Amino acid sequence: MSDHQFIEAKLWEGIVQYPPEFVERYIAKGYWQGQTISQFFDDCVQKYATRTAIICADCHITYAELAQKVNLFAVYLAQKGYQTGDSVVIQLPNIAEFFIAYFASIRIGMRPVMSLPAHRHAEVSHFIGQTEARLYICAEQHMGFDYRTLARECQSRCPSLQQVIVIGNAAEFDAWPELSTVANRYVITAEITARHVAFFQLSGGSTGTPKLIPRTHDDYLYSVRASAEICQLDENTRMLMVLPVAHNFSLSSAGSLGLFFAGGTLVLAREPSPGTCFELIQTHKVTHVALVPALAAKWVEAVQQGARNIFADLEVVQVGGARLPDALARQLIEDYDCCLQQVFGMAEGLVNYTRYDDSVETIISTQGSRISADDEIKIVDDEDQELPAGETGHLLTRGPYTIRGYFKAEEHNRKAFTSDGFYRTGDLVRMTSDGNIIVEGRSKDQINRGGEKIATEEVEQVLNQHTQVIQSALVAMPDHMLGEKSCAFIQWRREAHDPAPVRLNMQLRQHVQQSGLATFKIPDHIEFVEDMPYTALGKIDKKELRQRLIKASN
Ligand code: AMP
Ligand code: DBH
């Protein structure tokens, strides 16, 4: 096999490709333009060179300066011996280095994995293991957590990992390189096409481990360009980035990439508190911000308590990631003069937006309509039969920027996709006569904790490993701020030296934390039960458990 064939084979390993007839169609319709993310970035830089791309703390970076840094970091990576097809896990807070690392690694054909700051060693080592990542890039600390401890854990578990780059005090690891000392050489752009996988997004998923989502240059950039247009971003847009930069919403709906496409300025917030963010909005005359409902509720609370009504200052406030309660939507629009846009999306692909010229009622009560006329949407019953218009059912989708399979997950893919390539979103929705989607619930076994997704099975597996747990069931518990929190029902084993459930309660939380799962996966509440309720099929009846919680909260 030649070198080229070898790399080609490696690039497609574990990836489900789009069937040829769809490739042809998406190209013919102009959705897939054959542009790589590196070429896209170069175009942005050429168009907007002297404009400010990023504001991070006191640092203002123009597009040209960003390009220079990206180029130097790409040279550094190439000199370290990284090659096309190598993976890198990037786990950074909202700082400019995220974009340098992202664009530079893509430039040399590496495939970044978009880890979130909340992930811990269980998730990060899984990402490294799945992609055989050679490099992990993190910050020394963020929100009181020391990522070097996480790096040590991953190093001991992941044989593929060769280098860790730490921004800040690197301890025994490599410091982020002083880019001014890197020789300014021309990097040979990787020989990849726009059809190749550019990077891996992540999904909350609903089974064991978070799933890796392979996104190609072509499909991702289509969603970015189309989103920038729908959101009407331009050179005067000043977008505050509050949610984690790596999240699909933040990156592409329309997000930072949409913003760069339009030539606007990105203002990075290190943390999402109203104190920090309201000041940034005022200082930098921010026009756009994207929030999850829980954060929107927190900001409303701050305004109610006397903070300036920031919602009226902004041109657009996007809310997505979890169902925005109609009442909060109405409050934002009617009481706070907010120009609201609902966004219902998924890292697997499909994104829906309410449009600026939709009626107020549409914006309040729906999650918007699809980006593309070629986003195929089916609403089906339990037997995959399409339902009559207006009825609630399972949302299936296929389209020019929706994946055909998770990375290296053959078995899971058979369940998560239909045989003709529709992605089973796990969302229960209905569609209004004018094509807007209303999210009514979900059929996947997942908890949406203020936009952070918890696959219940992943946490249950960990809980079940505790010696005093006979079995466990994690279910959603209504919460007025986060929408949902998690409650673990535990059937427990009484032992001779029985610690009271109070102690066991604490032990179980510690147990989940020590297993290295993201902190948001630690159960918010634990209920001890003598036995579980069962369905007719003998499975734990989670519906009944959820109902108990709702009853208890009334
Ligand atoms: P993920 O697959 O992890 O990227 O998460 C995407 C999921 O988040 C969707 O399938 C929905 O369950 C949920 N989601 C995202 N946006 C919204 C929204 N605006 N309303 C309700 N649920 C949402
Ligand atoms: O929740 C999500 O994953 C999400 C929400 C809004 C998303 O991926 C997106 C927009 O692109």
TrEMBL record:
PROSITE patterns: AMP_BINDING. Residues 458-539 form the AMP-binding enzyme C-terminal domain. InterPro entries: AMP-bd_C (IPR025110), AMP-bd_C_sf (IPR045851), AMP-binding_CS (IPR020845), AMP-dep_synth/lig_dom (IPR000873), ATP-dep_AMP-bd_enzyme (IPR050237). Gene3D superfamilies: 3.30.300.30, 3.40.50.980, Luciferase, Domain 3. It holds the Pfam family AMP-binding. Residues 41-407 form the AMP-dependent synthetase/ligase domain. This is AMP-binding protein. It comes from Acinetobacter chinensis.
